[in-house]
Design brief:
heterodimer, A: Immunoglobulin-like, Immunoglobulin-like, 4 domains, five-stranded mixed β-sheet, B: mainly alpha, 83% helix
């Protein structure tokens, strides 16, 4: 637990300081193996096939740029090519939007690279060039089509790539003035480039079209592709500002490994264009380790590569300046690093003498040895890199003492060894003071001020009090006057464990150490004194199993014995038999039942009707619902009314005749 | 002596009642018999409930009310059918019987609904 919290504290300090330093300088690393494995993952699609042609194409281009392997080598016959070329040329002539031009010219360029048998040259290249150029805007951006007034940076990249294709496909030389105006456009486009604080440049995209918003990554990637393609096709030198090209490379590298295959394609494709371009190849300076230990005598190593991680031309690296964090002043070093050809790193064998533990920004300068290379490669002036110098901090003169309050005389004093285990046992009352003091020194002998120095007193009941230990001059010292603290301590007498925390991101031996305990004798709490806060419950118990929920079911009602119920069922029938017997005794008969056919039929139907209604009731009890029953009852009731009326009126007329007779 | 006189008086009373009842028309006797049947059935159910308890109470009530209800309806029928009753002189007994049947059907529809 204690060790974990130290690590946590240190980690947060480290993060905070990295965030601070990143404002002014940042590290950009060249493409690494992580990118290569990310690219390999592109080729293991989940369902065994790619979603669309576009995805496949982009995946292959990413893969090729990384030179993992050339995996596809399709053989197509020239006849098929000839047919495709005719169609593409037709669509070039009929095209009226930028994307039409882009796809058809791009297709022709690809075919040109595939085969030399088919004639892909454009006859009226000048006219096509002009019609694409007509879509350009004064700020160097392009429109997608002539009836769309919005201009876009992404479109500018596409247009440049298309125009490069036109130039390479042209059967005759393109008008030179056209190329010159285009170069001018590119310069204007670069005027609109935006800059991050860390020196990365990117092209922002403000235009939102039906295809959705193109983010800065795709816009910048598109422009880089367009420019490099144009420079390659025309053979012109564009004289682009070196820091901006390098800044673009830094922008792509700063993304590290993007989440989506599309972004990875944009990133790697643009970097590959920069690496292979005729424009200018950016060189990236990176440090394999930015945390160096003075105690271990680590050497400062610097690596210079191209963006994709290839070796750089012969060059020398100089450490120019060292800024210590927090202060503006810099010490000028101007020391050249020694090149280790085996590992291809530049090594600074010994750190400058005045570099103590702490956070620094090292400023490097790359100088190319061959003057030819100076034109071709871009180093971007000085590169600032944040570096952490760590070391083992010496802890000296640690002692803990109990003082008498009035005169300050020492009652009890004990030496502490803060590099090892301690278990002091002290006792004090509320009229005394506790003093803890120690010194911290860096390996160079300077006073070290760590980020965190805390003293913690923990009562048996779990109540904790944390004090910040301040430093006065060379010494760290804290004096706890218990008289002023009784209220804060909630008048809790008893054993308090003492714990000291000293931590910093550059301190290799940061520690959290129990020192022992102090037995405090505090006065009894007055009535109104604050109660100690309830201790937080153990966070682990919060995720533990909950108490089991028991369900209470209603106990089933007591039922009578089966035999008793059956006996009473039989008993209930007895009165019915008694009723029948009584009828026999009374000599009841059916002599009054109508004899003639029609009234007899009605009488029988009447009785059947009553029986059926009773049967319906029985069905209602067993399975039917109320609505079905009422519907059926309605029909039966009407029938019963009819036959009942006929039967009873017949009987009434018969009895009336008898009376009158 | 006194005791035998009491029993004799009671005997004489029963005898006179019996002879008076003998002159009652047969159709009224049949209705009386039906009422007796319904009431005795109701009493048997009450006894059953007294022995085993009132659960399920709605079933008990249904059975009880079915018997008592039909007995009451039969009493009404008897009142209407009786020739001695001058109040219902104009009402033919067939009409009274039709009412009895109709009321019984309605009663038992409710009973069946309540039976559960």
């Amino acid at each position: 637990m204690a060790r974990n919290s130290v690590i946590l504290v240190l980690a947060s300090v480290l993060l905070a300081s990295i965030a601070l330093v990143c404002d002014s300088a940042a590290i950009f690393n060249p493409i690494s193996d992580a990118h290569r494995s990310a690219a390999l993952e592109l080729f293991s699609p989940s369902d065994g096939s790619f979603g669309s042609l576009e995805e496949t194409y982009e995946a292959i281009r990413t893969f090729e740029a990384l030179r993992v392997n050339r995996i596809l080598k399709c053989e197509l016959n020239d006849k098929a090519f000839a047919g495709i070329v005719t169609r593409l040329k037709d669509s070039v002539n009929a095209a009226n939007s930028l994307l039409d031009f882009y796809h058809s010219i791009g297709g022709l360029t690809l075919i040109k690279d595939q085969t030399s048998e088919v004639d892909v040259h454009l006859e009226d290249a000048d006219r096509i060039f002009r019609s694409i150029k007509a879509l350009s805007q004064s700020d160097g951006r392009w429109r997608y089509s002539s009836n769309n007034p919005e201009s876009s940076t992404y479109a500018a990249g596409i247009a440049l790539e298309t125009l490069a294709g036109v130039v390479s496909l042209a059967s005759s030389e393109i008008d030179h003035s056209l190329v010159a105006t285009l170069k001018n456009d590119i310069m204007k486009l670069f005027d609109g480039v935006e800059r991050y604080d860390d020196g990365a440049y990117y092209f922002d995209e403000k235009f939102v079209d039906a295809h959705g918003h193109q983010d800065p990554l795709s816009a910048s990637s598109s422009v880089v592709r367009g420019i490099t393609a144009f420079a390659t096709a025309t053979g012109e030198s564009l004289n682009l500002p070196g820091d901006k090209t390098l800044g673009l490379a830094k922008f792509f590298l700063g993304i590290e490994i993007p989440g989506s295959a599309k972004d990875l394609y944009h990133q790697i494709d643009a970097l590959a264009c920069l690496e292979n371009s005729r424009v200018s190849v950016p060189l990236i300076l990176s440090l394999p380790a930015t945390v160096l230990s003075v105690s271990r005598k680590d050497q400062l190593e610097v690596r210079v590569n191209t963006v994709l991680g290839s070796a750089s031309p012969p060059l020398s690296v100089k450490l120019m300046q060292i800024f210590s964090s927090g202060s503006k002043d810099a010490s000028v070093i101007d020391q050249e690093l020694k090149f280790d050809p085996e590992r291809a790193v530049h090594v600074l064998e010994t750190l400058p003498e005045n570099v103590d533990v702490g956070k620094y920004i090292f400023s490097f300068e790359i100088s190319l040895q061959d003057p030819e290379h100076k034109k071709r490669y871009m180093t971007g002036g000085r590169t600032k890199v944040p570096v952490y110098i760590t070391g083992v901090i010496e802890v000296n003169n640690a002692e803990i003492a109990v003082l008498d309050s009035d005169i300050g005389s020492i009652e009890l004093q004990k030496k502490l060894d803060l590099s090892g285990e301690n278990d002091v046992a002290l006792s004090a009352n509320h009229l005394q003071k506790l003093r803890l003091s120690f010194q911290l020194n860096t390996p160079l002998g300077h006073t070290f001020k760590p980020h965190q120095v805390f003293l913690k007193l923990r009562h048996e009941s779990g109540v904790e009090h944390i004090f910040v230990v301040g430093n006065s001059g060379k010494k760290f010292e804290i004096i706890l006057d218990f008289l002023g603290l009784v209220e804060k301590f909630f008048y809790l007498s008893g054993k308090y464990d003492i714990q000291l925390t000293v931590g910093d991101s550059v301190m290799e031996n940061s520690f959290l150490r129990p020192l022992g305990h102090v037995e405090l004798d505090l006065p009894d709490a007055p009535e109104k004194a604050a109660r100690p806060p309830p201790q937080p419950i153990d966070p682990y118990s919060r995720y533990g199993p909950k108490a089991e929920i028991t369900h209470i079911f209603r106990a089933p009602e007591k039922r009578p014995p089966r035999e008793l119920s059956l006996a009473f069922s039989g008993l209930v029938l007895l009165p019915f038999f008694g009723f029948l017997a009584g009828l026999l005794r009374l000599r009841a008969n059916l002599k009054n039942f109508p004899r003639s056919t029609v009234p007899a039929t009605f009488a029988i139907l009447f009785h059947l009707g009553i029986a059926s209604v009773l049967l319906l009731y029985a069905l209602f009890w067993f399975k039917l619902d109320l609505f079905t029953t009422l519907k059926a009852l309605g029909f039966l009731g009407i029938f019963l009314m009819f036959v009942g009326h006929r039967t009873l009126s017949h009987l009434a007329s018969v009895s009336a005749k008898l009376k009158s007779a | 002596m006194g005791r035998s006189t009491t029993s004799k008086d009671a005997e004489a009373l029963f005898h006179s009642l019996h002879s008076a009842y003998a002159s009652t028309p047969t159709n009224l006797k049949i209705i009386d018999l039906y009422i007796m049947f319904a009431v005795v059935t109701a009493v048997i159910q009450v006894v059953y409930m007294a022995i085993v308890g009132s659960f399920p109470f709605n079933s008990f009530l249904s059975g009880e009310l079915s018997c008592v209800g039909t007995a009451v309806l039969a009493v009404c029928l008897r009142i209407q059918v009786n020739k001695e009753n001058k109040e219902f002189k104009d009402l033919p007994p067939e009409r009274a019987f039709a009412d009895f049947v109709l009321c019984n059907l309605v009663l038992h529809l409710v009973i069946m609904n309540f039976l559960g």
